[in-house]
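[Solved] Which block belongs to which protein?

Original post:
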Amino acid sequence: MPRILDQRILLLVISFSVSVQTTKVLSKWKKCGDLECEKAMSRVQATTDYSGPDCRYLNFKTGEEIIVYSKLSRENENLWIGSKGKDFGYFPRHAVKVEEVLIGEEVEVLTKETDFLCLHEDKYTFE
């Protein structure tokens, strides 16, 4: 019985690894307010309604406030990452206007594969 359990755990780990590897990386670099990307960078306001293509994206309506925590850089500078209430995700920078800058200097760091997973109610969803 323990051998079957070990095999099931191994299959689960392999499945998780393959899912993470096939997650679409949107950029290898991002800019943040600190090395951990935990500091809010700015407060922005939506200038248009936006509905993203999948669960990694933040949906919003014109006029809603969003807190920006990082911005993809180098190969994809058009996407920023932020939150609105409990919702968190990517959105195009052209869909918002900056209301307030909250940091003095941006730091560029490498992205992680987990940056591109969907998060629903504290659970990761793989694309």
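(Second protein starts here: sequence line, then its structure tokens.)
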Amino acid sequence: MPQTTASRIIRALIPSAMLRFNQFDHKFFGISDSEVEQMDPQQKQLLQCVYRALENAGIPMEKASGTRTGVFVGIMNRDYETNAAHVHPTVINHWTGTGLAMSIGANRVSYIFNFTGPSLSIDCACSSSLVALHLACQSIKQGECEMAVCGGVNCIIEPRVFVALSKAKMISPEGTSKPFSSRADGYGRGEGCGVVLLKPLRK
């Protein structure tokens, strides 16, 4: 099937909200046209934010390449995977598995940036990013990596999750999260990506 036809099928079957996440310069990261069409937007946001974190730290990609840098990512949302499961079989190709799997979120960062430290995608619901931070610090402390990229990402594409959470009374009436507070009354869902670069204080 011609690539343009496959693109039309994807756009027809996946909600238009997903398309706004796809403004991504894939060629900058050495990703082909056919591969990027199968990528979860969360993977794309991670790559962009990791680049920005390195840039803000004054570390060029070339200098970071080959270093013992760990990647620890909190990622739990499967909206893209859920929607993509319904695409026409002719759209599925050899990139589909890596594009949809949440486990690949951290691994793709390690691969693209040529990091050689531990690479973990962590799903423990609302605490995913916090646990990722804990594991990153432990990894540095134990000498498994010399620095670590740590963060979290969430893209909301599928509205049905809100229905389930609302019926379970897990959504805060105020729409805000109040972690570790006696005023906590559920959580407020948000989307975006945040990444920090961690190093031991002596470095």
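Accepted answer:
You had them paired correctly. Confirming on the second one: The radius of gyration is 18 Å.
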